[in-house]
Each structure stands twice: as C-alpha cells, then as structure tokens.
Design brief:
Layout: H1 2-13, E1 45-50, H2 58-67, E2 78-89, E3 92-103, E4 107-115, H3 131-143, E5 147-151, H4 173-189, E6 194-206, H5 208-223, E7 229-235, H6 241-250, H7 254-270, H8 281-291, H9 312-319, H10 327-334, E8 348-354, H11 362-374, E9 379-384, H12 389-395, H13 397-409
Parallel strand pairs: 4-5, 4-6, 6-7, 7-8, 8-9
Antiparallel strand pairs: 1-2, 2-3, 3-5
Helix pairs in contact: 4-5, 6-7
C-alpha cells in the first residue's frame, strides 16, 4: 500500500520540485519514536465519489431534520461526497477517508471540520461506511451554510484501505489531530462549486469529537498553517486524561471503563509494555480483541469495582499521583490541558458539559476554562444543570448552532466566565 501511495502522491504533485515542509513541533514521545512526514505529501486527495443518494434538495434535508425532532431550519440543499486522502501516522504515509458535505449552491462558506463522537474502534465503524447514520451531522451543518469535512479518524477508514491492524487510537492527541487537519486540507484541494473558506475555520465535535476539536486546534498552526481557526466547539469533551484516570481508578464509574478502553488503544499506538502490567488478566488478554469486534460498544464483562479491571499496583500509583510509566507520560502528553503542543490559535473556545457527566467528567472541563483563559484565549462555557454526557450534547444543539453563528459574525465573544450550572436548553 505504501508504494501505491507514493505513486499517487507523485502523480498529484507533478514534475515541479517542491521544497520539503516539516512541522516545527516535536512528535509524540513517551515510548513513541518517529519523525514527521513531509507535509507536501499529506492532505492530498486520492479519490472522491459524489454520493447522489445522500445529496438532496432543501426539502429533503428539512424533512430529515424534522424527523430527528430538531428545532433547526435548513437554508440549503446539500451535496455529499466521500474522499480518500493522504495523511501520516508514526512517520508513515497512510491514507484516510472522510465525508464532505457542502451547500448545493456555489459560493464561499466557512470551513467546518466535524469530528464525530465515539463510534467504534475499527474500519467497519467509520462514518464513511455507515451511510446516512454517518453523514447526518455533516449534512445538517452543510444545510446551514457550512462546507463540512468529517474524518473517520486513523484506524477507522471506512471508505479507504485500512491504515493498520491496530485499533483506532482513542483519545490520543497526535494521530487524532493529524488525520483531522489533513482532512481539512484535502477539502481545500477539492474543486467544488461550494468552496471552503479557510479563513473561517471551525473545529466542531462532541464527546471524543470534542476532544478531537481541541487537540486539532492545538496542532493546527504547525500541521495546517493554511487554516485560520475562528471557533472551536468542544461539546462534552475530555480535557484532562490524567484527571479522568484518577477518577476512573478511584471511583467505579463510566470513566473506569472509558479509561481502560483508551489505554488498550494507547498500548498499541505507543507500543507500551503489555497491558498485563496495569489490567487484570481478563481485560489484559481480551480487551483489544473485544473492542475490534463491533461498533455498538464492547462487552466489558460485569465488573463491580475498580479492582475488577485494574491491578492494585496500578490503582495505587495513580491515586498516589504518580501513575506507572509510561502511562503518566502518555496521559499528560495527550491531555489538552497539559499537552506540550499549545499552538498559536486565536479561536474562541466553546465548552459545553453536563453537571452529571460521569464519562467526560465535568470538574476537569471546569478547570480547563481557567487554564485556557490564563493563556489568553476567549472561552464561552455552559454547564447543563442535572444533565449527563449525552443529554447535555443533545439538548443544547440549537444553542450551539446559534452560538457558532454569532461568534463567526462577531455578534458574540468569549467572556471567560465560569458560569454555574443552568437549565438546558
């Protein structure tokens, strides 16, 4: 596959000599060891397909919105495409896939990068492989006047060839940001009547996608300097993996299983020592295989306490504030609040969480407001009283859409106010 990619890249670049471009930021460490691929070789379009089954006029899009029970009024019909593009992973040129959705009228539109919530960990789960289910949110935002690209993520290529046999690296900053940013660059390379305007770039995601939106913003200046991020919509995001690890190993909760799943993928991506050093035998031996077997979650057995999943030694190390290495290093490096790649974006951050969210636990999201504001960022924060992870994301959707429009137009701005929980919507 690598030889074929080199041939396709050479065809796309033509005969003209191009000065190599390499990011001026370090690659991941904590056991990972690789160099950057030349950025001239990434973000290139390999193949596109106009999905005429999902492309539809305004009336059809509005009917879908109404059927979903959303109080949103579309303004455009949509054109939908599948795209294969080049990106990189651990120093290797690979291909990735994404959905592109645009308004059905010529013009210049804000570029919106939609990063999807957790949908699985293998290629069969990629949104490009799931028809309307995978395309509905890109279609929604295209109908509101955005040129949208929605990447599958590394390890979830639905339409492209598999990038590796590993699981999708879940809540791992570098591969998440790289493939996301290269999808935006690929959209810019597509010759469409509805043109994406990189000076009005938006990163927008929910849950895992909220995390992806944040880390993409951190990496954007180095990996996609052609983009000018204006707004980051991070809805119910993970902001501090270390804090989530402390929560998940200290209190049996939704976070307990979520961190174990993340560690199962981190072990493959970072090539850490075996999971048997941190997980009980049942999970160390079977979790990765179980996670690769479907898209509707995975069977985690029937644990009742933290120690059913994690070894006592690992729990003690995390609760003492010194997680066993390399896990402490990995968690710090891949957390938006502590990752070394801080970027130079001036985009306004919108953080939405639920007071009762026990997966992307709420206290670290609150703490992130102060950190980003101290770094000079504009932040809008909304916490939904009494709502959990999914409910906070769904109930605030009309507010999210209105807020994004206001921020892009200049009618709204971040205020860095850590507001108290409030009823949503």
């Amino acid at each position: 596959m690598r030889l074929m990619l080199f041939l396709l890249v050479a065809c796309n670049r033509g005969d003209e000599a191009v000065e190599p471009r390499f990011p001026d930021i370090p690659t991941a460490s904590c056991g990972a060891d690789h160099d950057w691929v030349d950025l001239n070789e990434t973000g290139l379009v390999l193949e596109t397909d106009h999905d005429r089954d999902l492309s539809m006029a305004l009336g059809g899009v509005q009917a879908l919105i109404d059927a979903a029970g959303l109080e949103v009024e579309a303004s455009h019909g949509v054109e939908v495409y599948l795209v294969r593009y080049t990106t990189q992973d651990r120093g290797e040129l690979i291909e990735a896939s994404a959905i592109v959705a645009t308004p059905d009228a010529a013009g210049d539109y804000p570029l919106l990068v939609w990063t999807h919530p957790t949908a699985g960990f293998s290629p069969e789960c990629g949104p490009t492989n799931r028809g309307l289910e995978g395309a509905i949110f890109p279609m929604l935002f295209a109908s509101l006047g955005y040129a949208v690209v929605a990447p599958d993520y590394v390890g979830m290529n639905g339409w492209a060839d598999p990038s590796s046999s590993d699981l999708h690296p879940y809540v791992v900053a570098e591969p998440t940001a790289v493939a996301t940013l290269d999808s935006a660059r690929a959209l810019l390379a597509m010759e469409l009547e509805a043109r994406a305007d990189p000076s009005r770039t938006v990163f927008y995601g929910v849950s895992e996608g909220g995390y992806a939106a944040l880390v993409s913003d951190h990496y954007a200046a180095a990996l996609a300097p052609e983009l000018s991020p204006r707004v980051v919509m991070a809805i119910v995001p993970a902001t501090d993996v270390t804090a989530l690890g402390e929560r998940g190993t200290g209190t049996f909760s939704d976070t307990t299983g979520g961190i174990a799943a993340a560690m199962a993928t981190m072990q493959q991506w970072y090539q850490t020592p075996p999971l048997s050093e941190v997980l009980q035998p049942l999970y160390a031996e079977s979790l990765q295989e179980t996670m690769s077997s479907g898209c509707a979650g995975f069977d985690a057995g029937d644990p009742e306490v933290v120690e059913d999943i994690y070894t006592a030694e690992f729990v003690d190390s995390v609760q003492d504030g010194t997680p066993m290495e390399p896990w402490g290093c990995i968690w710090e490096q891949t957390s938006p609040v502590s990752m070394p790649v801080r970027g130079s974006s001036e985009a306004t951050l919108v953080l939405v969480t639920g007071e009762e969210d026990d997966l992307a636990w709420t206290p670290p999201v609150r703490d992130a407001v102060g950190l980003y504001c101290d770094e000079g960022r504009e932040v809008l924060y909304r916490e939904c009283e009494g709502l959990g992870h999914v409910e906070a994301a769904v109930e605030t959707l009309p507010w999210q859409i209105e807020t994004l429009s206001g921020l892009l137009s200049g009618a709204l701005a971040g205020d860095c106010v850590l507001s108290a929980p409030e009823p949503c919507p």
